[in-house]
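Sequence only, no structure available. Ideas?
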Amino acid sequence: QVQLVESGGGLVQPGGSLRLSCAASRSIFSIGAMGWYRQGPGKQRELVATITSVGRTNYADFVKGRFTISRDTAKNTVYLQMNSLKPEDTAVYYCNAQIYYGAERRDYWGQGTQVTVSS
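Reply:
I predicted one. Tokens follow.
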């Protein structure tokens, strides 16, 4: 198991920046992949970005060039740096961890942090 604690959400103007943090309760090297998902008003939850235990990253097309996922292995923390924010980025952002138990994958979620982009 793993517990995930997110922080860093808030209200920002269009074009602004925010950095989200997700602290894991265990070494992130023991986690197959961590990532960020988001769920906007009236929308389904969608992938934003992921980073694997070996540091490989993946991004949704709508954030490429604007968002960067990174990690601090000493702090067991994953970050999402969000630049050039748009109103359509408004959503609850969730941290996700994927842990494999043999062939079985289990997903764990943080509580979510609200990001609102508005003037």
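The first strand starts at residue 4 and ends at 7.
Hope that gets you unstuck.
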